[in-house]
């Protein structure tokens, strides 16, 4: 673990993952960009209306028998809603993304694929072979914007960051996401899991629930 | 309902086994019911 | 969004208390509207004028408004109330009345929210309730297999029950998506009671959901309502579990067991039946005699304390003529008598080029449960329609403990009464269920 001082307020910023290049200071909400041992403030993160998510940074859970902890969050919005992408660090140091929307939870991991069709070539219903084993079907294609971020993240999640997100579903509760951010295209695949099966602890306290 | 059926079915099977062992026809519309002979028979002897 | 400089002072930027209520005034009528879950709500409906407002819009744009003529529907479960269903606490946050465009059938939908588990729907149609969960997996649709379309999910087959266009008649509360004016969706319901798979298709997406039928008293209990506050149940719901189908399943399985058991017992008795000839004798008779002829057989012994007894008349010379005997089986010791009568007749001929025959040259009688002991037969006999008066011979054969099928068939009949009844009830339940559907497997074709 790497600890650096926030250039804005001096608070200690811990980087749990080596892959993290971005952080939001938990004290002053400065958005920080890390380059090796160098931390620079690039702006401030403005608060958003509470979305009643039961998750928070530091929350722990289990996926496929492995424990993970949430270390960063990216909230993205599109014209008709929003969802959260939680950056998860597994006990073995490997990263994952926990997508959370309207009570649905899916853990996914970045996968290397040979050829990714361009977002223009995709429409809902299109079948895409992302990995050798499985074919996924395009559910929706959305222009998304980063609304909010916190914790540490492996990407520059400043407010307003724009990307195109393609959601796909596969067999056996499988899911995949293709993210087109400029020339940067990344593919994630994983599966949905019931809330109770995550065995979360250190959940956020929700008044009245 | 299933329980009633189970009970009645077992009863029928038992009755069936018993009746067959006795050579007894449970339902016998053309039955020749035995009756005591009432003195000198209508038949000879 | 990108305003990085204008931020609240750092001291206030700590996590806001969850579930903070946001208040706004209606863009149309100015009435105060409170948004209970502002972070996850996109649409809110004004309680006073029923304007549908986009809360994510900075000017609180009115998405649309229900016209004044539209009747105001009252939710049976108050918005904001919480109830425990399927082990979780749910809050009613929205209420929608929808209508099938073709049939004008309406139903109510209540949007339920739980911050951990997300959203569920509670739907009410004719007093029948369903607990509905949106699913991410797309069921496989099979329309190739015969003309009956069905969907498959997790190895379960769901039969197409309904398809049509649904429109929104009325809406109240707050919703996590933007409700469009005149939003209409193409709906399909596939049933596998007590579950139902439904798809809702609009120009943007297809959403699948899985419904589970729940008893109305479960709903009443969860939201602390009296059962008479909920609408009266009418008819059979599409995915209501038939009480008869489960019974039929069990009973039909039991019937197979009983059938096998009875058959095994019957076979056992037929194989082990002694089928012993205890008496056989031929006697002369004079055909066409005016007076009754009589005879008494010699005494024969019957073994076993109880078994059946067959008395068979074999009159080989009966040919377009008849032989009649009335008699009695007499217990030599107790004098107990078993009266009987039998006719042996056999007719045949050719009629219009086709030969026919009727009757037989043998006839028999079976005595049930005859106690063992010494017996004899008294016989009276006469005959007629013979061509001459020459004396002929008839044979009397007595057999003890013969195979008999009467009990077997009667018991099979008795053991089948309840299954047949259950099947009829089960089927009529299904016929009634499907009577609301255009896809009834029970409907006569060409309908």
Task: Give a description of the structure.
- The complex is a heterotrimer of chains A (about 210), B (about 45) and C (about 450).
- The mean pLDDT of chain A is about 90.
- With about 210 residues, chain A is an all-beta fold.
- Chain A starts with a strand and ends in a 17-residue tail after the last strand.
- Chain A has a domain at about 1-45: Rubrerythrin, domain 2.
- The relative contact order of chain A is 0.19.
- Chain A is built from no helices and 15 strands.
- Chain A has an eight-stranded antiparallel barrel. A two-stranded antiparallel ribbon of chain A has the order 1-2.
- Chain C is mostly beta strands and about 450 residues long.
- Chain C has three domains: about 20-240, no CATH class; about 245-270 and about 410-435, no CATH class; about 275-400, Jelly Rolls (Sandwich), CATH 2.60.120.
- The interface between A and C is large, with 48 and 39 residues.
- Strand 1 (about 35) of chain B pairs antiparallel with strand 21 (about 335-350) of chain C.
Separation of the first and last Cα atoms of chain C: 59 Å
Largest interface: A-C, 48 and 39 residues
In terms of quaternary structure, the protein is heterotrimer
What is the average per-residue confidence, as pLDDT of chain A, rounded to a whole number?
91
Low-pLDDT parts of chain C are 1-18
């Amino acid at each position: 673990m790497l600890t650096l001082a926030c250039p804005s307020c001096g608070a200690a910023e811990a980087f749990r993952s080596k892959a993290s290049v971005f952080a939001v200071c938990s004290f002053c909400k400065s958005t920080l960009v890390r380059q090796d041992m160098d931390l620079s403030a690039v702006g401030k993160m403005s608060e958003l209306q509470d979305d009643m998510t039961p998750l928070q940074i530091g929350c722990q859970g289990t996926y496929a028998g492995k424990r993970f902890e949430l270390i960063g969050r990216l909230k993205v919005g599109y014209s008709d809603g929003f969802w959260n992408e939680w950056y998860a660090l597994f006990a073995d140091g490997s990263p994952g993304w926990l997508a959370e929307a309207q009570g649905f939870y899916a853990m996914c991991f970045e996968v290397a694929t040979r050829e990714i069709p361009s977002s223009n070539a995709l429409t809902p219903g299109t079948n895409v072979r992302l990995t050798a084993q499985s074919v996924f079907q395009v559910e929706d294609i959305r222009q998304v914007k980063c609304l909010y971020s916190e914790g540490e993240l492996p990407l520059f999640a400043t407010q307003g960051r724009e990307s195109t997100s393609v959601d796909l579903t596969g067999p056996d509760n499988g899911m995949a996401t293709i993210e087109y951010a400029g020339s940067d295209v990344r593919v994630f695949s994983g599966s949905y899991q019931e809330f109770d099966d995550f065995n979360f602890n250190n959940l956020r306290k929700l008044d009245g629930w | 309902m299933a329980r009633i059926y189970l009970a009645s079915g077992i009863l029928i099977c038992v009755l069936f086994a018993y009746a067959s062992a006795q050579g007894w026809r449970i339902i016998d519309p053309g039955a020749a019911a035995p009756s005591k002979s009432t003195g000198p028979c209508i038949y000879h002897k | 969004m990108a305003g990085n400089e204008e931020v609240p002072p750092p001291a206030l930027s700590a996590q806001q208390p969850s579930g903070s209520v946001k208040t706004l005034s209606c863009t149309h009528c100015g009435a105060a509207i409170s948004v209970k879950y502002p972070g996850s709500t996109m649409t809110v409906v004004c309680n006073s004028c029923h304007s549908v407002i986009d809360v994510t819009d900075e000017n609180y744009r009115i998405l649309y408004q229900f016209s004044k003529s539209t009747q105001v529907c009252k939710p049976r479960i108050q918005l904001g109330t919480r109830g425990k269903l399927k082990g979780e606490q749910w809050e009613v946050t929205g209420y929608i009345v929808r209508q099938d465009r073709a049939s004008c059938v309406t139903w109510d939908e209540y949007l339920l929210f739980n911050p951990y588990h997300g959203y569920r729907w509670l739907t009410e149609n004719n007093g029948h309730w369903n607990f509905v969960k949106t699913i991410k997996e797309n069921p496989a649709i099979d329309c190739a297999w015969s003309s009956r379309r069905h969907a498959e999910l997790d190895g379960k087959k769901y039969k197409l029950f309904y398809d049509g266009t649904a429109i929104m008649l009325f809406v109240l509360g707050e919703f996590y998506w933007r409700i469009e004016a005149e939003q209409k969706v193409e709906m399909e319901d596939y049933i596998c009671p007590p579950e139902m798979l439904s798809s809702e298709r609009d120009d943007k997406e297809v959403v699948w959901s899985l419904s589970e039928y729940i008893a109305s008293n479960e709903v009443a209990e969860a939201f602390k309502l009296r059962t008479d506050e909920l609408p009266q149940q009418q008819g059979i719901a599409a995915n209501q579990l038939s009480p008869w189908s489960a019974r039929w399943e069990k009973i039909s399985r039991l019937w197979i067991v009983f059938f096998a058991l009875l058959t095994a017992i019957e076979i056992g008795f037929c194989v082990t039946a002694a089928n012993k000839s205890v008496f056989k004798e031929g006697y002369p008779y004079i055909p066409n005699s005016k007076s009754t002829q009589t005879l008494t057989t010699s005494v024969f012994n019957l073994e076993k304390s109880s078994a059946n007894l067959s008395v068979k008349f074999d009159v080989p010379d009966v040919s377009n003529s008849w032989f009649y005997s009335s008699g009695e089986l007499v217990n030599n010791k107790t004098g107990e008598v078993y009266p009987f009568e039998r006719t042996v007749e056999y007719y045949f001929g050719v009629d219009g080029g086709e030969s026919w025959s009727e009757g037989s040259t043998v006839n028999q009688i079976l005595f049930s449960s005859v106690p063992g002991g010494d017996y004899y037969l008294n016989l009276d006999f006469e005959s007629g329609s013979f061509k001459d008066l020459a004396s002929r011979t008839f044979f009397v054969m007595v057999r003890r403990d013969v195979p008999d099928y009467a009990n077997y068939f009667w018991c099979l009949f008795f053991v089948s009464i309840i299954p047949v009844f259950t099947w009829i009830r089960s089927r009529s339940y299904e016929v009634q269920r499907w009577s609301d559907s255009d896809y009834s497997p029970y409907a006569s074709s060409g309908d």
